[in-house]
# Entry
Amino acid sequence: MASNEVRKDYLLNRWVVIAKERKKRPTDFVKKSVEKEEGVCPLCPGNEHMTPPAVLVYLSSNGEIRKESDQNGFRHKDWLVRVIPNLYPAFTPPDEKPVMVKESSVLARAVGHHEVIIESPFHNEHPGAARVSQLVHVINAYLDRLTDLSGKSYVKHVTIFRNHGREAGASLSHAHTQLITTPFIPRILEDELEASKSFWTKNHACLLCNVLAKERESPRFIWENNSFVVFAPWASVNPLEFWVLPKRHQSNMLAMSGGEAEDLAETMRVCLGGLRSLLNDPPYNFGFHTLLKKDARECYHWHLEVYPRLAVWAGFEKSTGMFINTISPEDAAAELREAVKAEKKGLQ
Ligand SMILES: [Zn+2]
Ligand SMILES: [Zn+2]
Ligand SMILES: [Zn+2]
# Structure
């Protein structure tokens, strides 16, 4: 009997079992049930009064984008993108001068911001089906919020993430992304930075620049355009997981040019669209790994990690932090490559 493989992550001290013997086909994961719509959608146009005042709205004015915010009691209408504070925030802004988290402390106030980026006035304009021009607005809104929030003294990290589908934690089905700032850098990011730093010290090169060059030529390659490369990571923890990396070395998303933002929009559209068509709109999460710290600039390479929610993590995973993936990244990439190609063709 051929044995399974155990693979280590590029950056993290994390191992995954690629279970060849329990191998499944990607089509085993095709979503069957259709989610029922909830009642009135608070994120749809016309229901702005059901949400807190927007911290940012994009309005179209004579072919240009005008950026505004809502004032108490007043809500802008006819927006293209709208960013609001989360009604049930995990982190809240400080009312007085915040006390910083000390390294030795085990208790701190959950100081920060928790926002919802409403990606479109159209309820179902999710990135896998969106107009690329709309996704450019969404990415620009990410960058605007990143710029604004990262300037605050109590913000040490900004996480931009998306829950798609109820099984992936989305309580509302309207197209939206979330953003949470934390008063410290979360562990996975800290570990990625440490690994990147030590690689830099030894090799005077960026670890993920190296990974990108290798994976572009590997059986795990999925897609590329002028500015981005997409591949299934060597030690994928999730079935059909894929990562998006900028070709040009950048430690954080704010270094993106306008052209690169457009290329990112296209990349997200075709890759999430490929996943959607391959598995009938499966649930997924994604998260941007981007670091604002100065000491990350040379060694750290920002990226987007996309995790389809197709497997249930049970006792072994939860108690060990080690994972079993029943579909190899090579098989995942082969299927996604075709689906993404078809998606790109459909766009033209
Ligand atoms: Zn809606
Ligand atoms: Zn790099
Ligand atoms: Zn990462």
Q: What stands out?
A: The radius of gyration is 20 Å. The pocket of zinc ion (ligand 1) is lined by residues 41, 43-44, 123, 174 (CB under 6 Å).
